[in-house]
Structure formats: C-alpha cells, structure tokens
Amino acid sequence: MIDLSTISTRAPKGLDKNETKEKTKEIAEKIGKLAEKMRAERKHSLLVVFQGMDSSGKDGATEHVFSATSPTFVSVKTFKKPTEEEFAHDFLWRVTKEAPEKGMIKVFVRSHYEDILIQRVHQWIDEERVTLRMNAINMWEKLLIHDNNTTILKFYLHLSKEKQEEKLQERIDNPEKNWKHNPGDWEERKLWGDYRKAYEDAINRSEVPWIIAPVDQRWYRNYFIASKILETMEAMDITLPTLENGENKD
C-alpha cells in the first residue's frame, strides 16, 4: 500500500541542478526521436497521465518532457469540468474518444480519475459509485493495453502543501502569472486532506501502477518524469520500417 506521507516531494540530496537540467534536455531529445520512430512503426501507442493537486505542474511537465517532440507525434488533452453534453453520457464517454491511436503519444492533463476525485471529495457521488467507477477505469485501461497495444504511464505529481501555497501565491504576486490565478484553487486547498485520501485510495486500487513523481523542485520533476518515459519507450523495442524489412507502407 502506498502512503504518500512517507514519500519525499523533493529531489535526492546531492543532485546537481544544472547537470540534471542538461540531462533532461538530452532525454527530451531522445524521446522526440523515439516518438518519430513509433509513429512510423504504428504498432505501439503511449498514454501519459498527469494527475496532482492544483499547481503541481502538470502543464509544465508536459512542456519540458516533450519539448523536442514534434506535435505530429504527440497531442495533449486537458480535462476540465464536463460540458452539458458530457454530463449526459457515462463518465468515460469523453475519455474513450481521446485515447491514443497506434503510433501516437497522448498526454492527459488531468484525466478519467477526475470523476473519482473531485466528485468524491465534494460528495457529489457516493462510495458505491466510486467503486463502480474505479472498476470501470481498471477495465478500460486493460482494454487499451490488450486491445490496442497501448502502454499507460500514470504520474501522480507529488507536491507538498507548503510548496502549493508558495506556487498559488506566486500567481498573485507575479504579474506574468496572474492569468493562472483562480480564487477557487484556494478554496480547494482547504480540502487538501480529503484530496490526499482520495488520491491514495485511487492509487492503491489501480491495477495499472502509478508512478509517484516528486515535484517540489521543477527541475527534478522534469528529469524524473522524462527518465521514466524514456525508459518505457526504449523497452518497447520500436523498429523503424524500411524497404528491406518489407514494413514500409508508402
């Protein structure tokens, strides 16, 4: 069982910041090259899920990790409050159509887990509904893996409560970040403990393991996530189609 309170939100001691940032750039370039090969091969797909408390850096992680990947090979979907049409369907309806096709990387900034996090914390759904939805999520992820050869990487962006306060205040104090300020984030912060419990439960009930990413230091967050993605893509053993191997489709 994962207990988030026992896991550090910071980089290991002694790690050099500048050296790590340079390594992250190198890793991002390798991810970009592998993404091109994956698109050419069209046998694999990759779904990257970023979940975390407000200001944990979901957008920033996406920007840095895929900085060297062409938009031709990666796309991002941000899940916000469901529209009226989406509310009229089952909770996975809006998610299913966003799953990556073979050869593509898809990034979910927030995801299908929103419907057992926000709705649970605010008690808009009961515990029976939570269990039903968690079971549905596990089955849906299995389907992607086995039916479409999709690899799923789910990152919980592990942020400390102290760092969150700093980042939220920064959105008020720094004019260049005022556009990110949302008074509602401060209200949600009051429910920190409830969200932490909901996240832990979702993480521990998930059949596809979550990766806990320390994010208090953005430079380490980027390196940690990029390293995990590169390691996963390299393990796919992606082969670039050639005329010799008879796999070129053009």
Task: Summarize the entry for a quick read.
The protein has helices spanning about 15-40, 60-65, 85, 95, 120, 125-150, 160-175, 185-190, 190-205, 220-235; strands at about 45-50, 75-80, 105-110, 150-160, 210-215.
CATH architecture: 3-Layer(aba) Sandwich
Note the run of SSEs as H and E.
Answer: HEHEHHEHHEHHHEH
Strand order of the biggest β-sheet: 2-3-1-4-5
Strand content: 5-15%
Shape: globular
CATH class: Alpha Beta
Structural class: alpha/beta
CATH topology-level fold name: Rossmann fold
Largest beta-sheet details = 5 strands, parallel
Percentage of residues in helical conformation:
40-55%
The beta-strand count equals 5
Count of structural domains: 1
SS summary, helix count? 10
Low-confidence stretches: none
CATH superfamily: P-loop containing nucleotide triphosphate hydrolases
From the alpha-carbon coordinates, what is the Rg to the nearest angstrom? Answer: 19 Å
Q: Report the mean per-residue pLDDT as an integer.
A: 95
CA(first)-CA(last) distance: 49 Å
What key attributes describe this structure?
alpha/beta, 250 residues, 5 strands, globular, five-stranded parallel β-sheet, Rossmann fold
Structure commentary:
The chain has 10 helices and 5 strands. The protein has a single domain (16-234), classed as 3-Layer(aba) Sandwich (Rossmann fold), CATH 3.40.50.300. With 250 residues, the chain is an alpha/beta fold.
Layout of helices and strands:
Blueprint lengths: L16 H25 L3 E8 L5 H8 L8 E5 L5 H4 L5 H4 L8 E5 L8 H4 L5 H22 L1 E9 L2 H13 L9 H7 L2 H14 L4 E5 L3 H18 L15
Parallel strand pairs: 1-3, 1-4, 2-3, 4-5
Helix pairs in contact: 1-10, 2-10
